[in-house]
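Problem 12. The chain below contains 446 residues. Write out its predicted structure in token notation.
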Amino acid sequence: MSELLIRGRVLTFLAEPQGIDDTAAWRYIEDGAVFVRGGKVVEIGEHAEVSRRAGPGVAVADHRPHLVLPGLIDTHLHFPQTQAIASYGAQLLEWLNTYIFVEEQKFAEAAHAAAVADRFMDELISNGTTTAVAYCSVHPESVEAYFSAAEARGMRMVGGKVMMDRNAPDALRDTPQQGYDETKRLIEKWHGRGRAHYAISPRFAITSTPGQMEMSQALVAEHPTCFVQTHLSENRDEIAFATSLYPQAKDYTDIYARYGLLNDRMLLGHCIHLGDREVSVLAETGAVGVFCPTSNLFLGSGLFDRDRFDRLGARWSVATDVGAGTSFSMLETMDEAYKVLHLNGQKLTPFNSFYRLTLGNARALGLEKHIGSLHAGADADIVVLDSSGKSAMEYRMRTATSLAEELFILQTMGDDRCVAEVYVAGKAMKGKGKVGASEKRVLETA
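Solution.
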């Protein structure tokens, strides 16, 4: 069974920070080590002590002076939109019809789906993301490609075929029965296979008839361990259209509630224009609102109200939402999240940002036993971050005097160039396992 000692400045979260000085919420070890065996974390601690217990024959990946954290987690993006990033000049509904529905038709071809899936997984890894929740296209071929590419890399991934039977091109529509049958077959093949998790995925109320929503309801009831994902209240025109199609519903959220889709494994992309009643329903059901800052800004959709979710006790996570989202980087995503919340008069500390990228998003998925922190028994999904990965960052870091400052620099200026190494189930994926004996940077924890 393979063993590895990963050395560096180790940072992992134990709880959600309640302020920038809440040092009980995280563990930071200046000269730390993570001991990995068989793709799992055995223990973390001071390097000298962990190294002694690991024994003399263990391979060492020395990443000093870099930060060693749990792999980053992305809770909402679209793998068929990998080549549709930066599609100019439209809000949501026009953007879908002009660019996205055209792009997604290509995924009927298995070879195209496989090529994009490989590139998609590699983009995630190059940006330090080791787990993501993605929509595939309506074609089963896209789901096969998605999970096959993830399995080849050993990644823990969540995904599913979108179900759409109206308000989309003929080539992207299924039927309620077809959507049910194909989804069921894909669940039976992939859900729980290795590190794969299936997400039942009615795209959104606009593209699903009541008949398809009923089929989605049946799938959720039959497969309670599957995730569920859809979109909610991203754009005001979308809201008006969706509620016109379901006039009996109290509001957009009630459409999904009426079909029994809201539960603690439901991920609702965007959730921008919600009232207190709707957020309270999410709180009661445990459903997760997914904050997608780069796409919300790119499409001019609006600003997520994090404080309303917190005040009413609703769960939320954060995501890139590629391809309306403009980057695969969760660091760049948190930079925009900070700005969005700032515009709303809301604060996001650097520690809260990195909590959300790791343990917070893992908790949103109910996967915190496996990913999101470096506790004993966790999957050894790990990212190594270089806070001097860009020349401007290196220059700025010369004046940094605390860990909080360093994390904020990473979040504000960082991108894939700051990802020095990524481990998936203990396997180095970027080939930078040995960094060298650089002098360690000593920082305070706040």
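Discussion. Residues 384 and 420 are 5 Å apart (CA to CA). Students who got a different answer should revisit the alignment rule from Section 12.3.
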